[in-house]
């Protein structure tokens, strides 16, 4: 596939432009913020590089679309993908970043950071023994690159890690992998749930009463997509203690609105979608590597199955 004319649309387009210039990539580029892209640009281009696609535009003239993020729901969910257009995604340090993010919150909980901070503020000396990672059971939803890397990090500390995927196919670093239909009986054994799933027709609103009410005081971490979690069901599960606390990095609406009840809940921890960021250098590195393979008709490890949504 020959690629000559490329649009890069991103909040970090200036940094990307600087790196590409420094690396001497000889292509005809147009660099924009997301809001500046026009239909004329898309009619001109062979390839489009961005974090998302706008509904009002026609993308059929493109040969290739490359997502600067790991997720592709902003390209596919609820949309009709243009026939014959290749879609790839960025693969870089996302798994390591998310694994460390999750590990930090597990340790924060097990080492009783909040309890001891409160006691410090009250000037009270009340020892309590922290729990060990090796005593914990964690269920990770999604056993792709991010889920596998997270499982690897946690299992190195002796955590018993279970996986859930659409196929239920066994993967390295998991004690056991189940599919969505047969994983329910294990839920009551878990200490923590981690969601890394993409947003698809199968995963939207997945974490509702059916799953949350089967839990017994777990810590829930969502680093997948916000719309996989029913926020009302989550608040209800926090009230009934089925969920002991929730760490949320992704939301249905981003930025999270001021009126959302999640802000004020004492057992909800919020971060602004930072568990796995694309840095300009990593984004460019993956883009160049993919471009070389696309033009050389070589196998792509980061190609997206547009029918499955990931």
UniProtKB/TrEMBL annotation:
It comes from the Bacteria. The keyword Transferase does not apply. One of its GO terms (molecular function) is NAD binding. The keyword NAD applies. Signal peptide: none annotated. Residues 111-275 form the D-isomer specific 2-hydroxyacid dehydrogenase NAD-binding domain. Keywords: NAD, Oxidoreductase. It holds the Pfam family 2-Hacid_dh_C. This is Phosphoglycerate dehydrogenase. It comes from Mesobacillus persicus.
């Amino acid at each position: 596939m020959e690629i000559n004319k490329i649009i890069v649309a991103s909040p970090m387009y200036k940094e990307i432009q600087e790196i590409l210039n420094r690396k001497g990539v000889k292509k005809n580029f147009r660099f924009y913020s997301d809001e500046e892209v026009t239909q004329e640009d898309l009619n001109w281009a062979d390839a489009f590089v961005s974090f998302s696609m706008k509904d009002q535009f026609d993308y059929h003239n493109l040969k290739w679309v490359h997502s600067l993020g790991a997720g592709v729901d902003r390209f596919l969910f609820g949309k009709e993908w243009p026939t014959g257009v290749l879609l790839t995604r960025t693969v870089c340090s996302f798994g390591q970043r998310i694994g460390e993010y999750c590990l930090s919150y597990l340790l924060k909980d097990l080492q009783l950071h909040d309890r001891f901070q409160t006691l410090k503020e009250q000037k009270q000396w009340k020892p309590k023994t922290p729990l060990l990672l090796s005593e914990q059971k964690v269920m990770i939803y999604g056993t792709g690159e991010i889920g596998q890397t997270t499982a690897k990090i946690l299992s190195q500390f002796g955590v018993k890690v279970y996986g859930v995927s659409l196929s239920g196919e066994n993967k390295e670093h998991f004690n056991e992998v189940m599919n969505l239909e047969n994983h329910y009986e294990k839920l009551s054994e878990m200490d923590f749930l981690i969601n890394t799933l993409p947003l698809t027709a199968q995963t939207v609103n997945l974490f509702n009463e059916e799953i949350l009410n089967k839990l017994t005081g777990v810590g829930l971490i969502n680093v997948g997509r916000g719309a996989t979690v029913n926020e009302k069901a989550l608040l209800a599960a926090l009230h009934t203690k089925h969920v002991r606390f929730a760490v949320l990095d992704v939301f249905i609406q981003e930025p999270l609105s001021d009126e959302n009840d999640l802000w004020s809940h004492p057992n909800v921890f919020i971060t602004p979608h930072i568990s796995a960021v694309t840095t300009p250098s990593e984004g460019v590195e993956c883009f160049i590597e993919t471009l070389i393979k696309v033009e050389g008709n070589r196998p792509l490890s980061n190609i997206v199955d547009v029918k499955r949504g990931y």
